[in-house]
Structure formats: C-alpha cells, structure tokens
Write a structure and sequence with these properties.
The longest helix has 10 residues. The chain is elongated and about 35 Å long. It has four helices and no strands. It has about 60 residues and is mainly α.
C-alpha cells in the first residue's frame, strides 16, 4: 500500500477537525517498529494471513 507524501491538500480538513494526519513515513513503519501489544490473537491471525507488514496496512484495514 502506497501513501502520498506530503498528504493531499484536503488532508487539512481532518487536522482541523482534531484528527492526526499521519505522514507517509509513519504509515510505512513496519509493525516490528511499533507497540502492537493491544492487537488480539484474532487480529494477528488476519495480519499474518493477509501479509500485512505496516502501520498503514493495519489502520486502513487492508485485511478486507
């Protein structure tokens, strides 16, 4: 999954609404580089099944 760098011009609308717009670098961060302790066994099963390897892949539900 590829993400735009920098975020598209309309991304400011989310920031203005109080959301954090993540950089493409952060979205591409390998799961091995973040704390994944909150993920359940079922979520890990799906992550492994679909070969998800990045934060962005999990956040944007690449499992479906």
């Amino acid at each position: 999954m590829d993400f735009l760098a920098p975020p598209p011009p309309w991304a400011h609308a989310f920031a203005d609404a109080g959301f954090t717009v993540l950089s493409s670098e952060r979205l591409a961060t390998p799961l091995s580089g973040v704390d994944t302790s909150v993920l359940t066994q079922g979520e890990w099963r799906e992550i492994r099944f679909y070969g998800i390897t990045t934060v962005g892949g999990v956040l944007f539900n690449a499992l479906d």
